[in-house]
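Here is the promised in-class demo. Please do not try to memorize the tokens; focus on the logic of going from shape to residues.
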């Protein structure tokens, strides 16, 4: 029989359980957190939990367990007392997560008297209102990271400028903060931003520079400031307003300056610096397609033109918090992220004079270096006197052709017996290929006279790899059918026929496969570093956090992961846009390392991109070579383990014949149920794969018959998601 103490303990435990079960509904938990200006990470830190766990509690996917449950209930109870629901909104609607970088101080009204604060419209619950009355309570709840927000930028990195029917101009900031803007002209708007708005973003690296404030102008704002809602055909071709436009003249009369791009979709307006302080504002003109629909929006159903300014500020603010303040296209922004994380110079004290002078950083690109003929595109000025005939197509022996896969082959009779073709897609494949990659940081050194291959030297090697026979390679004691695999040395998958230029990762892979290599000549870089590591980590964290906000976390596996991926875009449409923008940033930045002429100048004439220090085609080639050979390495592991061969590859989409419609039906596993070591693995992290789509073998045969032959169907096999299959 139980003692009295034992009975009392059981009763106390039961009472504790009843008290702990009294939690608000998941949507209310999220509303309370956002009303207080707290992030999921802050709550996770306080409760000694994972951020993903807090997100799951707010979606109702999981429930907290003791002892965290009692502490979480206590927190919510305290927040509910301070932030009761509005009378007209008894059921709170879910809202985008407030970026951690903007919590705490952003709840305060700016000190400048001209910048009045208004709450976001009550009809838009996605824009959490920052009430002045909650200011002190919020400040007590902030963590050390939130309290460290630079007070110069307490209202966030950017604002969406809009005007109502009465002409009142408002600046919608992150977190639901709305500022009254007294400016009536563009010059006054710029000066107000510099003096009072407290917008911008602190540098990402101690030796970098702070980001300029961004003002996103809506159509209503354009009309209010005397700007056209749409550019004329001539203005669109020029990419700017004419110098005689009244607003351009206003800017000149006010003593402000503009960059050489003039007043276009992305206009940079500035005054001369005050000491080391930049005084620059960037205007993002939304109706002029500043935020290109294929990168920042849904290309088949654009959302940004009709998005409420508060929601737009939240979306772009999240991007800025997780990646960097937008600087133009996602490609341009991704390239700027590289230099923001790896700034070329730092201040160094001269011991003799006591003055600070700029010094170069060892882990960065610090100058514009000479280029190599084999690494540049056809229109580059260095090829002007190369002696090529007009319309000459350079061969692999004349040009470095490191590109992503575009390969396919006919199905065998045995493969046609499978009813399905399943396509899987590698997450953030270019970013993943950049991780840990050693690249050159200085100019090229020309090696001649049959140099010995050195995998530690990034660069380009002229070498004959036609002797590499995949059928002779043993993987875990087994050989593979080389005829059913693409060659790892060409983007078309065809076996090379003679000497060709290859980036270091490609030649290194040939050595890894067990074959001798004998370079004829090379252009290598002797100063090396993992320049892209911090860039990759920043984008990886941004992508993983955004996917977690849509319910796709790193702990999900198998069918659970596939289901979460399938419903993610319905969970939070704003996060779905953010996912697209982050992937476009990673892919576009790598491409921009070898940006080609856009027809601005004739062939062999210098074009603007060539003036950048970050115009580095050798680094782009190294990333693409690493992406392609890394993919091939997994193809070999999969073929050796399960006698499974792809029938088409498009960039990072791989198509396999399958007995069932799911990737789980085709991707091989060990007897213990684990993914084959070194093969493709389902998951959300960069480098892992997701389901791109499924079609039938009969569908593929019909496509081939319609086209009159076999062609690459990898990017035609996709789900209803129109962005699927575009790589990255």
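The designed amino acids, position by position:
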């Amino acid at each position: 029989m139980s003692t009295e103490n034992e009975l009392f303990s059981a009763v106390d435990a039961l009472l504790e359980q009843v008290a702990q079960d009294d939690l608000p509904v998941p949507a209310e938990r999220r509303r309370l957190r956002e009303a207080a200006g707290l992030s999921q990470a802050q709550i996770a830190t306080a409760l000694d939990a994972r951020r993903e766990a807090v997100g799951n509690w707010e979606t109702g996917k999981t429930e907290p367990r003791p002892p965290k449950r009692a502490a979480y209930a206590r927190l919510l109870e305290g927040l509910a007392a301070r932030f009761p629901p509005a009378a007209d909104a008894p059921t709170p609607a879910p809202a985008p997560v407030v970026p951690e970088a903007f919590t705490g101080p952003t709840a305060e009204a700016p000190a400048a008297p001209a910048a009045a604060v208004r709450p976001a419209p009550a009809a838009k619950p996605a824009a959490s209102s920052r009430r002045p009355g909650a200011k002190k309570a919020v400040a007590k709840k902030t963590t050390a990271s939130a309290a460290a927000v630079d007070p110069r930028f307490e209202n966030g990195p950017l604002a969406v400028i809009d005007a109502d029917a009465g002409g009142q101009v408002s600046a919608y900031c992150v977190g639901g903060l709305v500022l009254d803007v007294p400016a009536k002209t563009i010059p006054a708007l710029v000066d107000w931003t510099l003096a009072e708005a407290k917008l911008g973003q602190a540098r990402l690296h101690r030796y970098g520079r702070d980001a300029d404030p961004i003002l996103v102008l809506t159509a209503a704002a354009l009309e209010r400031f005397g700007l056209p809602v749409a550019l004329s055909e001539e203005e669109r071709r020029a990419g700017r307003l004419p110098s005689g436009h009244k607003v351009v003249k206003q800017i000149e009369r006010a003593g402000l300056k503009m960059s050489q791009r003039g007043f276009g979709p992305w206009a940079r307006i500035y005054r001369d610096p005050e000491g080391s302080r930049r005084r620059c504002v960037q205007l993002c003109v939304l109706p002029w397609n500043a935020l290109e629909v294929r990168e920042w929006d849904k290309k088949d159903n654009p959302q940004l033109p009709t998005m409420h300014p508060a929601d737009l500020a939240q979306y772009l603010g999240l991007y800025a918090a997780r990646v960097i303040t937008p600087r133009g296209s996602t490609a341009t922004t991704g390239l700027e992220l590289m230099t923001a994380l790896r700034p070329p110079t730092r201040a160094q004290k001269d011991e003799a004079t006591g003055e600070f002078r700029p010094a170069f950083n060892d882990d960065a690109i610090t100058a514009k270096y000479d280029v190599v003929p084999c690494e540049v595109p056809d229109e580059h000025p260095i090829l002007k006197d190369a002696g090529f005939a007009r319309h000459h197509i350079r061969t692999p022996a004349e040009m470095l052709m490191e590109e992503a896969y575009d390969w396919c082959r006919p199905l065998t009779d045995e493969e046609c017996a499978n009813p399905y073709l399943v396509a899987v897609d590698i997450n953030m494949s270019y970013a993943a290929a950049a991780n840990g990659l050693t690249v050159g940081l200085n100019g090229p050194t020309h090696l001649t006279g049959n140099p010995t291959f050195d995998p530690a030297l990034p660069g380009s090697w002229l070498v004959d790899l036609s002797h590499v026979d995949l059928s002779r390679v043993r993987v875990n004691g087994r050989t593979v059918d080389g005829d059913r695999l693409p060659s790892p040395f060409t983007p078309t998958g065809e076996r090379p026929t003679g000497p060709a230029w290859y980036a270091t990762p490609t030649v290194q892979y040939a050595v890894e496969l067990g074959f001798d290599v004998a370079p004829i000549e090379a252009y290598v870089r002797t100063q090396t570093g993992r320049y892209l590591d911090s860039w990759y980590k920043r984008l990886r964290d941004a992508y993983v956090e955004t996917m977690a906000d849509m319910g796709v976390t790193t702990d999900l596996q198998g069918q659970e992961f596939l289901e979460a991926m399938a419903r993610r875009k319905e969970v939070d449409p704003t996060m779905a846009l953010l996912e697209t923008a982050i992937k476009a940033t990673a892919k576009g930045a790598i491409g921009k390392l070898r940006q080609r002429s856009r027809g601005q100048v004739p062939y062999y004439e210098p074009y603007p991109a060539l003036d950048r220090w970050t115009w580095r085609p050798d680094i782009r080639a190294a990333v693409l070579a690493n992406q392609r050979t890394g993919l091939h390495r997994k193809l070999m592991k999969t073929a050796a383990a399960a006698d499974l061969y792809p029938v088409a590859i498009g960039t990072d989409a791989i198509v396999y014949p399958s007995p069932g419609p799911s990737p789980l039906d085709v991707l091989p596993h060990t007897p213990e149920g684990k993914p084959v070591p070194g093969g493709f693995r389902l998951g959300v992290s960069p480098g892992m794969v997701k389901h791109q789509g499924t079609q039938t073998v009969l569908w593929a045969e019909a496509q081939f018959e319609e086209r009159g032959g076999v062609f690459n169907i990898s990017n035609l096999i996709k789900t209803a998601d129109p962005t699927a299959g575009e790589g990255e």
